[in-house]
Amino acid sequence: MADFIFNIAKGKIAEKVADGATLRVLVLKGAGTDAAMKDADNITALLAVGSVVEADFTNYPTGPRKAISGATATVDDTADLMKVDCSDIVFTTAGGASNNTTTDIVIYEDVDGSDGNNGTAVPLMCFDAVFTTDGN
Fold first, then answer.
1. Quick check: helix, strand or coil at residue 108?
2. Are residues 67 and 24 in contact, defined by beta-carbon separation less than 8 angstroms?
3. Integer Cα distance of 7 and 13 in angstroms
4. Residue 71 has what pLDDT?
5. How confident is the model over 66-111, as pLDDT tens digits?
6. Model-level pTM?
7. Which residues are CB-neighbours of 76 under 8 A, at least 6 positions away?
8. Order of strands across the sheet that contains 122-128
9. Is 135 in contact with 94 (CB distance < 8 Å)?
């Protein structure tokens, strides 16, 4: 698997950050192929792809999922890039009673405050993120 931008989000991420969109993190403990996942147009569709399974470790935030803070979009004229950054994403006391080995994290836009539970949340980016929770 590789890091990728979902097809529906190409060219939109920096604009969403600049506009103050509500961005959240979805952690996966099972993933489908990149080709199948990147075609998902919303979180509901993503979670229906083959072997995609959302994490469920102890203290994993559900309702709402963890929000991203401090997102900025900065033009780098020297490198001809638009850089997007955010505050570190921290899951305090992840795991313990129930642990997961994760596969990926998905950054998505919570369009209407429903946390992606009604088919409106737009997946933006997917990153390989393999770690095992243990309560730390």
1. strand
2. yes
3. 11
4. 92
5. 999 999 988 888 888 788 899 999 988 999 999 999 999 999 999 9
6. 0.88
7. 82, 83
8. 4-5, 122-128, 104-109, 23-30, 53-54
9. yes
